[in-house]
Amino acid sequence: MSVERGEPVLSIEGLTKKFDSVVAVEDVSFELRAGEIHGLIGPNGAGKTTTVNLVTGELEPTSGSVRFKDDDLVGRPPSDIARLGIGRSFQVVQYFPEMTVRKHLHLAIRDPSKTVRSVVDADPEDTARIEEIAERVHLSERLDTVAKNLSHGEKRFLDIGVVLGMDSEVILFDEPAAGLNTSETEELEEIIEDLRGDYTILIIEHDIDLVRRITDRITVLHNGSVLATGTPEEIVSNEDVKEVYLGE
Ligand SMILES: Nc1ncnc2c1ncn2[C@@H]1O[C@H](COP(=O)(O)OP(=O)(O)OP(=O)(O)O)[C@@H](O)[C@H]1O
């Protein structure tokens, strides 16, 4: 089922997650609209990563629902949720040190019924697709470089390439600019900007200037609850947000 641009594609409603006595996420509701870039911000411990883990199935909510188009995601394993079209990048980039960029992308685009081993040993069939993804993540010149020899920024871009290769419709980015220098952050911004409209994107990010520049809407979490959702302009002028987050 395809979704019209601007229509809700992922709807989070009344999501709550308790870890014993700690309420990490409390009655959180917001939606991602098809084609938008949506920021998820808030102080440390506000519940951002927990929210993403509840969407991807790494955690199961105490209550509430997560809907992706017509599908209820709660209770499904992460592999099912990924296969439905929800991809994520992690705070800490995951990669195989001795494997080339080309092989990482080959693995990402493989038919999921094929084992990793059979793909690692085979030559890629769809070289055009691999090259197209490499270009989108600025790694065309690095296709034959093993991952351990990439710069930190390039490893991050490879991680994004792997998510693109998995044919995700929704991409969840957890602090993609963490540890990047200024020029790498600018390059990341170009890469994400180029994805605008082709994917629905949720981005957790502490670099508030980057979030303001790149997002269409922002949700602010505080103590596990939604403080506000709105356009970047609405969020930066919101009195509650200024008080708890922007430090004004
Ligand atoms: N597995 C867990 N067990 C117990 N408490 C947890 C667990 N995971 C998260 N928490 C708590 O839930 C709250 C929200 O954590 P979470 O990591 O989602 O916040 P965050 O907004 O992503 O923070 P940061 O910006 O530091 O990454 C915190 O108080 C955290 O200590």
Protein model, in words:
- It is built from ten helices and ten strands.
- The termini are far apart.
- β4 and β5 form a beta hairpin.
- The mean pLDDT is 91.
- 36% of the residues are buried.
- The chain is globular, with a radius of gyration of 18 Å.
- A six-stranded mixed β-sheet has the order 6-7-8-3-9-10, sandwiched between helices.
- The protein is an alpha/beta fold and 248 residues long.
- Adenosine-5'-triphosphate binds next to β2 and α1.
The global form is: globular
Work out the number of β strands. Answer: 10
Bound molecules: adenosine-5'-triphosphate
- Give, in order, the helices and strands: EEEHEEHEHHHHEHEHEEHH
- Indicate the percent of residues in helices: 25-40%
- Beta-strand share of residues: 25-35%
* Gap from first CA to last CA: 44 Å
Class derived from helix and strand content: alpha/beta
Number of discrete helical segments: 10
* Main beta sheet: 6 strands, mixed
> How would you state the average pLDDT, rounded?
91
